[in-house]
From TrEMBL:
The gene is Uox. This is Uricase. One of its GO terms (cellular component) is peroxisome. It is found in: Peroxisome. GO terms for biological process: purine nucleobase catabolic process; urate catabolic process. Pfam families: Uricase (PF01014). O2 binds at residues 48, 242. The keyword Oxidoreductase applies.
Amino acid sequence: YGKNTIKFLRLHKEGKKQFVKEVEVCAHLRLTSPQEYLDGNNSLVIPTDTIKNIVLVLAKKNGIPSLEQFAIDICNHFMTTFCQVAYVKAYVQEVPWQRLHEDGVPHIHSFICVPDGIRFCEAEQCRNGPLIVFAGIKDLKLMKTTQSGFEGFYKNEHTTLPERHDRILCGEFFCKWSYGERKDFDFNCIWKKIRECILESFAGPPDCGEYSPSYQKTVNCIQMHVLSRVPQVQVIEVVLNNTFYNVVDMKNLGLTNDKEVLVPVETPYGSCTCTLGRKS
């Protein structure tokens, strides 16, 4: 049991310059006894309102140096403070505020919310067990207008999809990775590096791109690139929900349409998922 959607903004000041971190936290506990379920005995139950208040107090006292460290702080607090807690899990996701720039100059106290992917993390721990940390990015929508195709696929009497050697590749990414047992990592630096790996693998070199023969191959390339560049990552899961575009037929309007005007196919949409890890 626990408390979901604990939302708050943490403001930090350094002289005139101000910093913000807006997050949503879910904190769940498992107790050593199920007596509140079986007997209606609530003597060991930490109220969910107390859980919420503890999260807010930790934000006030410790700040949020990284999402991962804040999730770790939550786990550590419940494990070291309450002997009746057998398991704790903390999920933290961030609202994507970025500092506003005017003519290239960073503003000291103004920010803009940019929907270029939402950062999140999880930390979980069993009593007498290791603290495990996960991190990820979701709602990251990417597109490339060429250098993608889909050919040579299996066909039978139900196949109507034509082969394409040049199509738009567009999708929304969910990516989650595991650091294994907790270590003292620079989580902010690693997260930025993994995000860069995702963008590099998806797009390819800026002057020519890189051909993608399928959504599945793109997912695998992203995973392989992350594992080769970021040794701290042990397992990485990628989910790609595809968005397809159809060329509008403009013959009745007396126009030819050479893939200049397209409409998205809202539903159904495709999806592919792959989890890849290092050999033990």
